[in-house]
TrEMBL record:
GO terms for biological process: proteolysis. The gene is aprE. Residues 269-301 are annotated as: Disordered. The chain crosses the membrane at residues 42-60. This is Alkaline protease secretion protein aprE. One of its GO terms (molecular function) is peptidase activity.
Length: 301
């Protein structure tokens, strides 16, 4: 056996791999192929060939095979529950046990006495709602009469319809009269304030006239008093009277201003009340329209 040659240096020991690979322990040289590219190529070729074979088989192999069998479809039971959408008393049975029936065939009849009574009640409510709606529409437009819809006019021979329309007509007139009286009362109060302003203006004008006349008299009296021909105490009395008249003029002017302010506030209250009445009518009309539509659906359109 030959020893492997070693090279020594001051920093480290390095093994000569070429010598190790080229020398055999039996004294003959052996060459080792370290290139692994050939096995990798063979692996890729096998993989590609296998995938191609699988795709060819998947394309050409028949996969439409199925298993057929025969059977019978039966219902889960011989008895079936038959019931109406709404409960009630059965008045007539039109089939017998075991009889064959067809789709849509009448099997039983229910007593419709209660249903008819309920329908009559709902229909009466619908008539009232329609008449009320017509009356509110007349109030909204400020009309003195009601234009009832054709659906009510066509039932003019029905006593209930006649009574409902007459009641709504009377209600329209009474409500119109009530609103009119309320607004007229407020307008009358405003007219009273306007007359009060006129009186205050007249009083102010009269006092202003007296003030002008008294001022002229005072001028003459002061001239005479300065010359000793008129007593001073009389002049003082006239001056106090003049000051009192001037104060009355200012007071009348202030009162007239307050009265005018009250008139403006009264007109604003009238406008607000009218707006409130219109909103109240619109709200009632909206509610009645929804109620009438709901009752009409309940009556079957």
């Amino acid at each position: 056996m030959r020893r492997v040659a070693c090279l020594r240096s001051t920093s480290s020991s390095v093994i000569d791999m070429s010598t190790l690979l080229n020398e055999s322990p039996f004294g003959t040289a052996v060459q080792v192929d370290l290139n692994d590219a050939r096995p990798i190529r063979w692996g890729w070729l096998l993989l590609i060939f296998g995938f191609g074979a699988f795709m060819a088989w998947a394309t050409m192999a028949p996969l439409d095979a199925a298993v057929s069998s025969s059977g019978t479809v039966v219902v889960s039971g011989s008895r079936k529950l038959v019931q109406p959408l709404t409960g009630g008393k059965v008045s007539e049975i039109l089939v017998r046990d075991g009889a064959q029936v067809q789709a849509g065939q009448v099997l039983v009849r229910l007593d419709d006495t209660s249903a008819r009574a309920q329908l009559d009640i709902v229909r009466g409510q619908w008539l009232v709602a329609m008449a009320t709606q017509a009356r509110l529409e007349a109030e909204q437009r400020g009309r003195a009469s009601i234009d009832f819809p054709p659906a009510l006019l066509e039932l003019g021979e029905d006593t209930r319809v006649v009574e409902v329309m007459a009641l709504q007509s009377r209600l329209l007139e009474s409500r119109r009269q009530l609103r009119s009286n309320e607004l007229q009362s407020m307008e009358a109060a405003l007219r009273g304030l306007e007359y009060q302003v006129q009186g205050q203006e007249a009083a102010k004008y009269s006092k202003e006239t007296q003030s002008r006349m008294l001022r002229e008299e005072l001028r003459n009296q002061k001239s005479l008093a300065d010359d000793g021909f008129y007593p001073r105490n009389r002049v003082s009395e006239q001056e106090r009277l003049f000051a009192s008249i001037q104060g009355g003029v200012a007071e009348d002017l202030n009162s007239a201003g307050k009265t005018r302010q009250a008139i403006a506030e009264g007109r604003a209250r009238i406008a607000a009340r009218q707006q409130e009445q219109r909103k109240d009518i619109e709200s009632q009309l909206s509610d009645v329209q929804r109620e009438a539509a709901s009752l009409e659906d309940a009556c079957g359109g």
